[in-house]
Amino acid sequence: MDKIYLCIDLKTFYASVECVERGLDPFKTDLIVADPSRSKGAICLAITPKMKERGIKNRCRVYEIPKTVHPIVAKPRMKKYIEYSVRIYQIYLKYVSKDDIHPYSIDEVFMDITNYLHLYKKEPVDIAKMIMKDIYDTTGITATAGIGTNLFLAKVALDIKSKHVDSHIGVFDEETFQKEMWHHLPITDFWQISYGTEARLHKLHLRDLYDVAHCNPKILYKEFGVNALYLIDHSWGRESCTIEDIKKYKPKSNSLSNSQILYRDYNYKEARIVLAEMIDNLVLQLVNIGMCTNNLSFYIGYSKDVIRPVACSFKVDDTSSYKIILNRILEEYDYRINESVPIRKIGLSFNNLHVLKYEQMNLFSNNDTVRDNKLETTILEIKNKYGKNSILRGISYLDGATQIDRNRLIGGHNAE
Prior knowledge:
Layout: E1 5-10, H1 13-22, E2 31-33, E3 46-47, H2 49-53, E4 72-74, H3 78-95, E5 101-105, E6 108-112, H4 116-120, H5 124-139, E7 143-148, H6 151-159, E8 169-172, H7 174-181, H8 195-203, H9 209-213, H10 217-224, H11 228-235, H12 243-248, E9 256-266, H13 268-288, E10 293-302, E11 310-319, H14 322-336, E12 343-351, H15 369-386, H16 403-406, E13 409-410, E14 413-414
Parallel strand pairs: 2-4, 7-8
Antiparallel strand pairs: 1-6, 1-7, 2-3, 5-6, 9-12, 10-11, 10-12, 13-14
């Protein structure tokens, strides 16, 4: 028996939540979710379906909205959106086991409903309607869905076909996918095909998925390497990965990373303060998961790309010590960064995370790792109990520091 997957998306989720909270209909209301304090260049995190009907693109910038449209501007409230997402996930659990659910994002999930067809004695479309109705009745949020015989087909059915049927439920198997989607354009509508991939396909004179499916595989492997396999499989509507595979997957290597685009140009000293704050934040995360690192990297992007950015990676002995990591990164920063050029982007990564099995002791230097870890653990306990800003290093109170403000954000956006 073929697998049957269901992919559910919460339509214009952030904007819909804001409309529900105001007692408004998102299909009849002009509303955007954006932070006006970030100027007219701020990106709209979501717009209502009513605005999409006007031809306005989702994720547009505030200044791109036509002057004739005067939308309600809702400041992002990430905690509120997470609350709604959790409530809706609880609805999913009424119908499907968590083992058969893969959350893809805050507003989208995949479900393996194969074993539930017999349980509910319903067709896949009927199960989708049952869950979508419960979501709307419980929260007021409208959902759309895609159904497919693999994860890729379910996603394409959601992203493309559900928009053009009255039920808002798209359905594909391999045969119907090939019949209906082989010549669909633009090709970037398909999951995991970016504008860069489209450009490389055009270079090979491949315009749509039909062309990809019938292209000599050697040509595709020469251009895309191992990624050609996914392109070829998807062009035929095939996907071997299952939710069970996703649940079992464990990455061979992992990392912790953080990045910031600064609100203004920072000078050398100010950016150094922000980098030190980011180091503090990642070390706390490192200690919290009981890991250490032996590879550090950072990225510094200068304002307006006046000169090439600096990307640096280097090895260290296994450590989770704040002092050791701080001193090593700032040493490289001081050596490599041009002090006369303003800075706008900062990225930081701790790579090759692993559990420390043993530590080489040194009679000629103080070993502060244990003491540092106890301090970091204590700081974490205080933050978890009283809030992220309940205890901070003195550097976060210097001019140019960003951590206090960032601790009030979720995903880079206003939390409350």
